[in-house]
């Protein structure tokens, strides 16, 4: 028998990055969230040490315990050095530990609790929203600031500043952070869900060429959502609803971009590319979300995503049902954006005039007037009513304001179709509209 | 058929002070994958050694100098043995080693024996 091709012992995908998130969470619980930077440095050193050792000697049997042991010793050493030299007043005695018994604590459910606790820390109301997301990506997901900057389309400096703002807020709130038990933190569940929702939307609403790496942000939102759902504290119906929404949107990732990297509307997407496993998972979470009295925007948005996923064709989509759901969404989360979305569903259901009738009496706030989808939608509806003059005016404005190349390309196609007074097909996409604002 | 194999020592040297930019966990995992692939490819040749901790000491004429040797531009990070027939082969194996992706790092190759 021929020798099999030697295969190197592989690490699970994103092992270093996820292990970094686990270790930072565990160490921060032990040494205090106000020392999160010290913990991050200790973890970084442990990972580097692992890289050197494992590269030469191969993987140890107990990788995670190996990392934990090194990171813990590293953190303890750093604390001791800080205590000797530091006059900053951080004189809390690090409790002496026996690394071997500590290692036994590094068990699955403990680690999960610690990560969950860190997720609730991220949702601290004292941290600005955009800093919360960056902080979560750094501490819980193990991304570097450069990697975050790349995924969120912000400069490295902007990301760094947001991170510093989060750390400063946490240092000021030592007391508040250390005292509550995880059950008390449950009151922050809505804020935690909001973070996951924003994380997912950040990764989802883009048609950039580097779409793939942004999907990692969505994967992280789902991973943390699952972590939350497994825990008694986080396993609420609204968590299931958010997971349903994320799975049903993720199911359509691969069909959203055409061969040239352009963004495709729902009607133009190849439905055979939709991931039926993810749709199934999403639907089962949607069922699980339907218990108790709680009814959130995540429930409605997941139901809308499910309508799209389950419709056999674009034409056969139940637009009346979708219009009704958007109306419910306006009830739980009042926003003219939801009215905008409803008008599109109504236009499909009862014709473009009915859609326009919803928008024309609206007195949209300034930010919505500057929002390219406002003009894109009005432009398309006017085009379908045969009012080409108004259509071109709105589509031109939308084209100017569209944030990404893919979206611009899409609008240019619409505008050309309109100028030629030909073309067909309505502008309609929950994808282009995002999952809400 | 058997070929007599010589044994070579690889000394892995890295620029002192570490790399200017700290790699992210994802980058470290990519580096690990490259090393694992290299070791798997030359499984029959490469015999891993140990890592070398920083610091140490030099004894010279009975006088002791403690590490770390800050003035040194590079530090020895680890070593390994390579069993192969010729120095040329040992060089080829070293050329494929992922250490070449680390700026300023090097492998010194020495044949064992007198």
Please explain how this structure is put together.
The complex is a heterodimer of chains A (437) and B (114). Chain A has 437 residues and is an all-alpha fold. Chain A has a domain at 365-417. In chain A, 66% of the residues lie in helices and 0% in strands. Chain A has helices at 15-31, 36-57, 63-85, 99-105, 108-122, 129-139, 145-152, 156-172, 174-178, 189-204, 211-230, 237-250, 276-289, 297-310, 319-332, 336-350, 352-359, 366-369, 372-384, 388-401, 405-419, 430-433. Chain A is elongated. In chain A, 43% of the residues are buried. Chain B is of the alpha+beta class and 114 residues long. Helix content of chain B is 23%, strand content 36%. In chain B, the strands form 2 sheets. A 4-stranded antiparallel beta sheet of chain B has the order 2-5-1-6, covered by helices on one side. The radius of gyration of chain B is 16 Å and the shape is flat. In chain B, 18% of the residues are buried. Classes of the chains: A mainly alpha (437), B alpha+beta (114). The A-B interface holds A 6-11, 14-17, 19-20, 44, 47-48, 50-58, 142-144, 146-147 and B 22-29, 31-33, 35-37, 39-41, 43, 48-51, 77-78, 80, 98.
Q: Summed up, what is this model?
A:
The complex is a heterodimer of chains A (437) and B (114). With 437 residues, chain A is mainly α.
